[in-house]
Amino acid sequence: MQPKPAAQPKPAAEPDKPTRAEPTGVAAPAVSGEPKDPEPAVTGPSFIQISGAKAGAEIQIDMQVVGKTPLKAVQVPPGLHSVWAQMPGHEIFMTEIIVKKGQTSSVKVTLKPIPKMDL
Fold first, then answer.
1. Cα 55–94–71 angle (5° rounding)?
2. Quick one: how far is CA 113 from the chain centroid?
3. pLDDT of residue 61 exceeding 90
4. Contacts of 106 (CB under 8 A, 6+ apart)
5. Which one, of 80, 71, 78, lies nearest residue 109 by Cα?
6. Does the pTM of the predicted model rise above 0.70?
7. Is the separation of the CB atoms in 46 and 76 below 8 Å?
């Protein structure tokens, strides 16, 4: 039988290199500002609610006529949407709105009368 080679000693940690701490099994305290519990997922349909327009104003969402006021909330996919309102004798109202998933976003329409011109 041949003798076993002697065990090599572990090299000492070099002073320039940081050493890693071994895990202790104890959880680190939560950093302030971190959420403790994740927000619940928002589900359900998204809507745009139109208010403020005079009765009979035509409403368009994303270049599609959705009806005339008064109008119930209109279901839309989440994201950016353009909203137009028009009525004879009034300036066209235009705006954009971001609708989040499962939420209802409101648009207050203001239709300004077109001033009459005297000739």
1. 30
2. 35
3. yes
4. 48, 49, 50, 51
5. 71
6. no
7. yes
CA 27 from chain center: how many Å? Answer: 32
Query: What's the farthest any 2 CA atoms get from each other in the chain?
Result: 122
The residue with tokens 């939560």 is 30
> Which residues, at least 6 apart from 52, have a Cβ–Cβ distance to it below 8 Å?
108, 109, 110
Greater pLDDT, 101 or 27: 101
CB 59 within 8 A of CB 69: yes
Pair type for strands 58-61 and 46-51: unpaired
Tell me the mean pLDDT in the region 51-66. 95
CB-CB contact of 85 with 93 (8 Å): yes
Residue 117 has a pLDDT of 81
* Token pair of 115 as six digits: 């001033």
